[in-house]
Amino acid sequence: MRIGHFKETYTADEAVFQSGFVRSALVLLFLGLAGFPFVAGPYWLYLANHAAIAITAAVGLNILTGFAGQISLGHAAFVGIGAYTAAILSSRWGWPILVCLPVSGFTAAVCGLVVGAPSMRMKGLYLCITTLAAQMIFEFLFVRAEPLTNGIRGINVPPAEVFGLVLDTEGKLYFVTIPVMMAAVTAGRNLFRTRVGRAWVAIRDRDISAELMGINLFRYKLLAFAVSSFYAGVAGCLYAHLYKVVTPEHFPLHESVRYLAMIIIGGLGSVLGAIYGAIFMTLVPELLQWILGRFQQAHPAIMQDLFPLQTVVFGALIVAFLVFEPHGLAEMWRRLKDAFRLWPFHRE
Amino acid sequence: MDLFLQLLVTGIAAGGIYALVAMGFVLIYKATRIINFATGEFMMIGAYFFYTFLAVARLPPVPALALVLVCAAALGWVVERLILRHMLGQPVISVVMVTLGLSSILTGAAELIWSAEFLSFPPIFPRAPIVLGTLVIRSNQFWGFVISMIAASAFALALKFSRLGVAMRAAADDPTAAYSMGIDVRAMFTLAWALGAMAASLGGVLIANIGGVQPSLGQVALKIFPVVILGGLESIAGAVLGGILIGIIENIAGGYLDPYVGGGVKDLAPFVVLVGILMVKPYGLFGKPDIERL
Known about the structure:
heterodimer, A: 348 residues, B: two-stranded antiparallel sheet, 11 helices, 2 strands, 72% helix
């Protein structure tokens, strides 16, 4: 029976993908993702795009909240900033999506620097409420800065174009969202093997100790805000092209809470957790709709209850995970793997 | 000048109710160190209970209000026992998220039970507005202010002088010492949630009496965060003062600036003030700085 990985060199110990099994599983995953648009219908492709964008944003939030330990209730606002940047650039000046992506990210990152500035003096609850204020202020700007944002009417976004190829269907956009998501995840995963990532973890675990070890708290916290907002901005740019219209209603406080829920349910401080959480939170509302759809024949009015029911289930999931499994889906998955690997000697 | 005075008085009247809701929030924070993002939803549920007792069960206003308070206390008790009890000693993010989840559950449940439609109470107070010299206050606002001030004083006095109030403050101050003095600290936590829910739902009834109730009423309570930050998260007097100040600020800012930007300043101003205050005084006007030791 295998009880662990035996390694002979440091290189092997530091490898990102620890075993041949993981490497082959990843190759299979890539092949599956590449083949998916050729077998799936538009609805599934829409879901896949949605999940990929949610993953990008959630990995960003997990960098800030899960790794650097700063709670943000304003993530949706940064997604919104990215979306508006992309919408304005592409609708007025016809910038291509590949240029919009980094520009949206940088715009959001600059705003993130501003919002992160109070973290110099505050932490915990107070900082959390400052980000709430930022969310409210940006929401106000989205509605009221009409010359830029068109107010509540929003901005129509022309279909994305890559090297002259118009991405007018879900299936074509898929080939942008998925690579961006994979780049974001890879970058996020590797960030924590660098000095910066380790500094963030040190700050999260004990800020005073981190400072004593020579980590400039303010600089690294600001950096966490900027990087996390960059991810959000990139996700926002993708949303703008997925929805084809950007309005203030797309980025309410509720949406920020949804991103937090993704990383809590997936597993705080784990890139894999953010991925699980984002997929889970994208699929649950659809699943609920499907279940209610089964009962529609018998009770035609049931679909009216869909939205409030989704709200209740959303809240109940957050509460249930926090009470019963605070480490989230990533931990459940790890335990499940252990149970199989160590069977029959495994015991809780 | 008349406009200024009118806005000032309206602001004070609105702020009094914020003060009461903020008090519900501070009661819970003081005792349990939990920042309750579901305060607004307690307000909303309280308002719906009142509507049900008053308009559906056709009870007179006073027994209806008493029943609302009982139901709110029960709700606070259930929430603490079922959910928050498990969150003791958990990191800030978990506690914040669990109350956010709770607020989502309550909003959805309210919409399932009472539908998303806008409901307003049958009139309770005489309709004629209150006239003070050249100033006019809507009667609902005036009575709302009076009732919330009475309730806030009652809460503050009870907390200061009654035996239970002293025990609650002791449990909040130092749970270990309170345990050793024979105080049931857990019961105090539950009591804090019951009282907090009562204060919030009374505030909800008063606000809904002015503007009606719908499931999104809870969003009003987002303004409670500027209020409690302004007053310091754990100061009852600060909550009252902060509530009135925020009421004044939002009305004056709304009254003077709305014509220029096309509305919405009223809901924004408290948050701008909040950021300003936190930049200068990170622990609010009356809050104690945390002293950290390794």
